[in-house]
Write a structure and sequence with these properties.
31% helix; alpha+beta
């Protein structure tokens, strides 16, 4: 696509996710989801304003639970080129953070302007995601056992040794049952399906496939990472009720359409950054030690396929002299 970014914006985005993670982590275990989200949103918005880009939020987290958010259509960056779409989840796992549980991330992704799918008010999708070995072999319309078999073949193992990661929700009970009937293993998670999708691309994660109904914003954001990692994802919009079915009809959203990677993010120029808020399988969480704060981040650029893990040590005394963010 014309106007594609030519510099590695992901290295600038990680400053944003680090700030959001540090701000949110102050509320770890304190039981207040909104405080977690508000701190991350405020930090992310301030640092985003310093990045050389003309960004528009296409995927903003918060609408489905009325949490603090960076809203869809909000301009971000300092207005300089390049023009980009932005997918943002200040904390993927606000509940995890509030309860002091593992696996919360601050997440930000970019692609050139006009490339990201916008699901509007349809905030849930049925999803299937796999790593590079099984890319191109999955079919969301096929039975669960077919997809488990395809992944088993791609990873040179039996179905009994395949592990599916699934959000533990009543809406996914039929999927959990089908996986068990097929004989595969299951890792249930309470939140955090961006991290779960990425885990399918890590050979040492113990996860082979993501299945189930989760957030639409997370699906688009995950796609930015999966493009960089060589993974694959298919999704279908999942309306919760007649009101959402009517919304889809009024806005020309096909509920039967299989949304492939090209539908979700039609770009090979994606950038992704995530910083651990609480420790999990993918990233370590924020560690506070007096004036020193340590963060652990994942930074991806699709064009080069570069995967970076960044451990940063921040000096709070110096940061607080320079930054508007209250760390």
């Amino acid at each position: 696509m014309s106007g594609a970014p030519t510099r590695n914006l992901a290295l600038e985005l990680v400053r944003v996710t680090e700030a959001a993670a540090m701000a949110a982590a102050r509320f770890q275990g304190k039981g207040d989801k909104d405080a977690v989200d508000q701190a991350a949103v405020d930090a992310m918005r301030r640092i985003l304003g310093t990045v050389d880009m003309d960004g528009v939020v296409v995927i903003g987290e918060g609408e489905k639970d009325e949490a603090p958010m960076l809203g869809n259509g909000e301009p971000v960056g300092n207005g300089s080129p390049p023009a980009v779409d932005v997918a943002v989840d200040p904390v993927d796992g606000t509940r995890l953070t509030a309860l002091g549980l593992d696996g919360a991330l601050a997440v930000l992704a970019l692609a050139e302007r006009g490339s990201m799918y916008a699901p509007g008010s349809l905030v849930y999708m049925d999803k299937i995601a796999v790593g590079p070995e099984a890319a191109g072999t999955i079919d969301i319309n096929a039975p669960i056992v077919h997809n488990l078999t395809q992944v088993a073949k791609a990873r040179d193992k039996t179905v009994n040794d395949v592990t599916a990661i699934i959000l533990d929700r009543p809406r996914n009970e039929h999927i959990i049952r089908a996986v068990r009937e097929a004989g595969a293993r299951i890792k249930l998670i309470s939140d955090g399906d961006i991290s779960a999708a990425i885990s399918t691309c890590k050979r040492d994660s113990g996860v082979d496939i993501l299945l189930g109904i989760g957030g639409s914003p997370e699906a688009v954001t995950s796609a930015c990472a999966l493009i960089a990692l060589g993974g694959d994802q298919q999704c279908k919009l999942w309306p919760r009720d007649d009101e959402e079915r009517n919304y889809a009809a009024e806005h020309g959203l096909d509920l039967e359409q299989v949304l492939t990677m090209k539908h979700l993010v039609n770009s090979s120029h994606t950038f992704f950054a995530a910083t651990g808020v609480t420790s999990g399988d993918l990233l370590d969480g924020v560690r506070f030690d007096g004036e020193r704060v340590t963060t652990h981040s994942l930074v991806l650029r699709a064009e080069t396929g570069t995967v970076r893990f960044v451990e940063a040590v921040h000096n709070l005394r110096r940061l607080n002299k320079l930054s508007e963010v209250d760390y």
